[in-house]
């Protein structure tokens, strides 16, 4: 779950992903994550916070997320755009 959230975060909010700033509010990011994961938005918000923590901590999931994301490079251009950005949700 954290890796999926990390991939979505890296794709939709790359500047937040790269900076590691966990204080940035992510706007409309929580609802699609909640829908995909089949949970309430409040629970998804907690999972997003956990994922952001595990991305930033040493030995966390950042390397895994980066590796998977880089391997998706050929797939993402085929995804439909949402608000001008490609979507991992499709």
Features:
mainly alpha; two-stranded antiparallel sheet
Give a brief outline of the structure.
The chain has 90 residues and is mostly helical. It has helices at 2-12, 14-19, 30-37, 41-56, 62-71; strands spanning 81-82, 85-86.
Structure description:
This protein is mainly α. The chain contains 5 helices and 2 strands. It has helices at residues 2-12, 14-19, 30-37, 41-56, 62-71, and strands at residues 81-82, 85-86. The protein has a two-stranded antiparallel sheet with strand order 1-2. The longest helix is centred in the middle third of the chain and has 16 residues, at 41-56.
Structural class: mainly alpha
Order of neighbouring strands in the sheet with most strands: 1-2
**Morphology call:** globular
Count of alpha/pi helices: 5
Low-confidence stretches: none
Multimeric status of the protein = single chain
Per-chain topology:
Layout: H1 2-12, H2 14-19, H3 30-37, H4 41-56, H5 62-71, E1 81-82, E2 85-86
Antiparallel strand pairs: 1-2
């Amino acid at each position: 779950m954290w890796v999926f959230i990390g991939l979505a975060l890296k794709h939709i909010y790359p500047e937040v992903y790269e900076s590691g700033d966990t204080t940035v509010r992510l706007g409309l990011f929580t609802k699609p994550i909640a829908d995909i994961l089949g949970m309430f938005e409040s629970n998804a918000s907690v999972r997003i916070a956990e994922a952001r923590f595990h991305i930033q901590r040493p030995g966390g999931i950042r390397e895994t997320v980066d590796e998977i994301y880089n391997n998706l490079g050929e797939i993402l251009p085929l995804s439909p755009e949402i608000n001008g950005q490609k979507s991992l949700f499709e």
